[in-house]
Amino acid sequence: MIQLQQVSKAYTTSRGTVRALDGISLDVASGEFLAVRGASGSGKSTLLAVVGGLAQPTAGRVTVGGCELTQMSPSQRSQFRAEHIGFVFQMFHLLPYLNVVDNVLLAARSMTPEHKAYALELLDRFGLTERRWHRPAQLSAGERQRVAMARAMLNRPALLLADEPTGNLDDRNAGAVLDLLDQYHTDGGTVVLVTHHADAAARAQRTVTLEAGRFA
Ligand SMILES: Nc1ncnc2c1ncn2[C@@H]1O[C@H](COP(=O)(O)OP(=O)(O)OP(=O)(O)O)[C@@H](O)[C@H]1O
Ligand SMILES: [Mg+2]
């Protein structure tokens, strides 16, 4: 599902160049659940951004589902992302002035009755039916993250990239979000989960650890 070959990502700022990823190679099989660990600043979010086509590497090749992202134009990459990849972040990134259903439907490339029905089905599965007309400010952190998961899954992506999705949640809500990731994986999805937490990483089949942009 994912192939990284000698991928580097350098950020140049006024204070010099940071090698966030330093020539890493990685293969993730279709249907695999991979955890990525490592200290703050080790390159975890950069790795997800590169795999998801949100950031272009400075060097190397990135292939997802047989398509080489590093050969695509920015618009081809965003199209590919919308069709094949779901993202979940620590900070939820919900729009405050939209209700739950409309936040989930933001991910829809076109608004069809099927999309709307699937959004409601996901919200039901994630225990959010009662909350579906609420706005994010009216929800608990755990509920917000489940809305973000529903949005990430609306297009039935083959790959789900999750960056510290439990970072702002208590143990019970973190467990609920990890259960949803597990379910997605059991249904055949490929998961890459960035986490600082051992109990979250324990859900994965394999863990890799980054140290200063390289695998330890
Ligand atoms: N846009 C940017 N411009 C400059 N440097 C950046 C940028 N984004 C990240 N970096 C640097 O690249 C390195 C890796 O950052 P990254 O965000 O990937 O780390 P991380 O492992 O996700 O850390 P955390 O656990 O704190 O989220 C860090 O040294 C960071 O300061
Ligand atoms: Mg990060």
Report on this structure.
- The strands form two sheets. A six-stranded mixed beta sheet has the order 6-7-8-3-9-10, sandwiched between helices. The chain has a four-stranded antiparallel beta sheet with strand order 2-1-4-5, with helices on one face.
- It has helices spanning 44-51, 74-84, 100-105, 113-125, 141-153, 171-186, 198-201; strands at 2-13, 16-28, 33-38, 59-64, 67-68, 85-89, 159-163, 190-194, 206-211, 214-215.
- The mean pLDDT is 94.
- It has seven helices and ten strands.
- It is globular, with a radius of gyration of 17 Å.
- Magnesium ion binds next to helix 1.
Outline:
With 216 residues, this protein is an alpha/beta fold.
Helices and strands, in order, run as EEEHEEHEHHHEHEHEE
**Based on CA inertia axes, which overall geometry fits?**
globular
Q: Roughly what percent helix?
A: 25-40%
Corresponding CATH architecture: 3-Layer(aba) Sandwich
CATH superfamily: P-loop containing nucleotide triphosphate hydrolases
Number of helices: 7
**What ligands are attached or bound here?**
adenosine-5'-triphosphate, magnesium ion
Q: What is the CATH class?
A: Alpha Beta
Largest sheet: 6 strands, mixed
The CATH topology is what? Answer: Rossmann fold
Gyration radius over CA: 17 Å
Physical arrangement of strands within the biggest beta sheet:
6-7-8-3-9-10
Question: Taking all residues together, what is the mean pLDDT?
Answer: 94
Total count of domains: 1
Question: Structural class given helices, strands, pairing?
Answer: alpha/beta
Query: Uncertain runs with pLDDT below 50, 5 residues or more?
Result: none
What percent of residues are in strands?
Answer: 25-35%
Beginning-to-end CA distance, first to last residue: 22 Å
Tally of DSSP β-strands: 10
